[in-house]
TrEMBL record:
Pfam family of the protein (one): CDP-OH_P_transf
Bilayer-spanning residue ranges: 38-56, 62-82, 122-140, 182-203
GO-annotated molecular function: phosphotransferase activity, for other substituted phosphate groups
Transmembrane helix keyword on record: yes
Protein name: Unannotated protein
Cellular component terms per the entry's GO annotation: membrane
Organism: freshwater metagenome
Length: 208
């Protein structure tokens, strides 16, 4: 059995128990309905990606943040359903979930980049840096795991990156015109630093 990570375990320890009390009963109902973690992942991932591309590219940033946050909650359920079910998560399920996460992450940034393509050429370039560096964070970790080297940590993992960009989008729509500029520059910088940190971790791990 493969243990599938769930957002419940990324919460602060003080919040895990009350959140689990809400999520677990719903997950058990989903299991009885024969709804698999893969279907939950698919709906959440595609819903998040499509919402991001449509809403962010049209400048509806706050609405987009709400929609993406809603579909992000599916991560709570697919992981919990996998944990509570007898089969657990399969290798295919883990790959599907990870792939959909990458697509969703890209869609969130691409949606914003499309909106600014005729408004701020410099910002569009920074968006590209943020997209590439964010992908590299995940790629470097995946390569490390393929080489059987532990590669955890870094200043900006996926949760931190999502919080930065979604907060920037939401605040921008509330009237702070520089919010997205600040958020994207910060994201690009921290993601790049994280890539470097992980490369160093892998290098040190390869020497052991």
């Amino acid at each position: 059995m493969i243990t599938k990570p769930t957002m419940v375990f990324m919460l602060q320890s003080g919040l895990r128990e009350p959140v689990a009390k809400i999520i677990d009963p719903i997950a058990k109902v989903l299991i009885k309905m024969r709804i698999t973690p893969n279907w939950i992942s698919l709906v959440g991932g595609l819903g998040s990606s499509i919402s991001a591309l449509i809403l962010f590219s049209s400048g509806k940033f706050l609405t987009g943040v709400i929609a993406v946050s809603f579909f992000a909650l599916f991560d709570l359920f697919d992981g919990t359903v996998a944990r509570l079910s007898t089969r657990g998560s399969t290798k295919w399920g883990a790959l599907l979930d990870s792939t959909l996460d990458r697509i969703s992450d890209a869609a969130i940034l691409i949606g914003g980049m499309i909106y600014f393509q005729n408004r701020d050429e410099v910002l569009v370039k920074i968006f590209l840096v943020a997209i590439v560096s964010s992908f590299m964070v995940s790629y470097v970790k995946a390569r490390a795991e393929a080489l059987q080297i532990q590669c955890n940590g870094g200043i900006a993992e996926r949760t931190e990156r999502l919080l930065i960009i979604l907060t920037a989008y939401g605040v921008y729509d509330l009237g702070f015109s520089n919010a997205i500029n600040i958020g994207v520059y910060l994201l690009a910088t921290l993601a790049t630093i994280t890539v470097i940190q992980r490369i160093i971790i892998i290098y040190r791990g390869s020497l052991k």
